[in-house]
Amino acid sequence: MPRKIYAALVHYPVVDKHAQVVSTSVTNLDIHDISRSARTYDLDAYYLVTPIEAQHWLVNTILEHWNTGWGSTYNENRKDALGLTKCVTDIGALVQDVAAECGESPILVVTSARSYPNTISFGDLRDTLQADGPPVIIIFGTGWGLHPEVISEADLILEPIMGRGDFNHLSVRAAAAIIFDRLLGNGR
Amino acid sequence: MPRKIYAALVHYPVVDKHAQVVSTSVTNLDIHDISRSARTYDLDAYYLVTPIEAQHWLVNTILEHWNTGWGSTYNENRKDALGLTKCVTDIGALVQDVAAECGESPILVVTSARSYPNTISFGDLRDTLQADGPPVIIIFGTGWGLHPEVISEADLILEPIMGRGDFNHLSVRAAAAIIFDRLLGNGR
After folding, report:
1. CA-nearest residue of chain A to B171?
2. How far apart are CA B19 and CA B170, in angstroms?
3. How far is CA B25 from the centre of its chain?
4. pLDDT tens-digit profile of A100-142?
5. CB contact under 8 A, A163 and B36
6. pLDDT value at residue B15
7. How many Å apart are CA A11 and CA A16, to the nearest integer?
8. Nearest C-alpha of chain A: how many angstroms from B114?
9. Which of B77, B120, B171, B180 has the highest number of chain A CBs within 10 A, making it the mutation to test binding with A?
């Protein structure tokens, strides 16, 4: 059975520019852009992770609009992409949901713009994803990045994306697209 | 001298879902996300192309906020990225601006999610960009894509991004990020 691959966008716990823990707001384009990228690279689901109940209501209202409401006939491609998208309260619930679906515990891979000593390279993670094995969740942070606790508790830390030069302040939407393409695309 | 490379996001002429020519609105995240991706891959400038004067005012107000206003000290990385970004009226003005800066006419490369018989592959365009030569502008469309007239008048049409499967309805922000990475990145 080919490996199941998931993405998750974490809104808590993440850090702000002063490295303080914060909870960020879900944004409409983080739902749409990353759902569309996840669908393009044939991921099994895309999770929005936030403990704030009002944000779950917001996400679910947007998803209903596109999945079963007016948007579902206006733009069927969008329905196709947003059909992948779910909302969970925290990383524990994310892991439980994937484990329940797959019947085994997932491997957690965190992403960061920062360098860590023990990262896995894009090439090695690409090879891992191609081999059979337990499900993998690729985890992205909002704000100024995932809280260090999330990083330290992950199974794998993916190396940062470097472009040309030392500026690597990509939006999370751009970073997710590039990471899916590097790990799963056939385009170069 | 290494080749100069530019990106442009066209808001007119593009098509809507019924293949009718329309002018789309500039959005704040199209400015930010693609500026940040362009800066990460060390492009020489990023142009927003729209004939609507009120949109020029909007773009320039946003750019001023981040380049010289309050935002320039709040987030210096954002200033660094948005310093690349300019606004022009149409593709003619885009070509003139690049030609004036470089002293020679640019090669226009258009991008599309559709397939055309005479596309250039990512690998071939990557080789082209690495060789010396005239400046290159990579042109992206908003809405449902560039008007056929823009496609037919371009020098080169880049092959579409395909992920895994036949769904390739990426956001333009995601597509631009992947295209810069495939053409200019070192990450796989």
Report:
1. A33
2. 18
3. 15
4. 999 999 999 999 999 998 899 999 999 999 999 999 999 999 9
5. no
6. 96
7. 11
8. 14
9. B171
Three-class DSSP category at A161: coil
User: Taking a C-beta distance cutoff of 8 angstroms, is the pair A45, A85 a contact?
Assistant: yes
**Whole-prediction pTM value?**
0.96
**A6 with A138: CB under 8 angstroms?**
yes
pLDDT of B79 reads 86
Backbone angles phi, psi at A148, to 5 degrees: -55, -30
For chain B, percent of residues with pLDDT exceeding 70:
98
Contact assignment for A181 to B181 by CB distance below 8 Å? yes
- Rounded to an integer, the average pLDDT of B114-134 is 95
**Which two tokens mark A127?**
């090879």
Q: Which residue in the block uniquely carries the two structure tokens 């008048």?
A: B153
pLDDT value for A134:
97
pLDDT of res. A1: 66
Structure tokens at A159: 């190396």
pLDDT of residue B187: 64
Collect all residues with Cβ–Cβ distance below 8 Å to B42 and sequence separation of at least 6: A163, A164, A165, A167, B184
Query: How many of the other CB atoms lie within 10 Å of CB of B95?
Result: 17
Q: In chain B, positions 82-121, which contact chain A (CB-CB < 8 Å)?
A: none
Residues facing residue B87 across a β-bridge:
B48
In the predicted model, is pLDDT for residue B75 greater than 90? no
> Nearest 5°: phi and psi at B7?
-125, 150
B135 pLDDT higher than 70: yes
Whether residue B26 contacts residue B53, with contact meaning beta carbons closer than 8 Å, is answered with: no
Amino acid at B79: K
How far, in Å, are A39, A110, A184, B123, B167 from residue A130 at the CA level? 18, 18, 9, 23, 20
Label the pairing between strands A156-158 and B136-141: unpaired
Beta-carbon separation of B188 and A123 below 8 A = yes
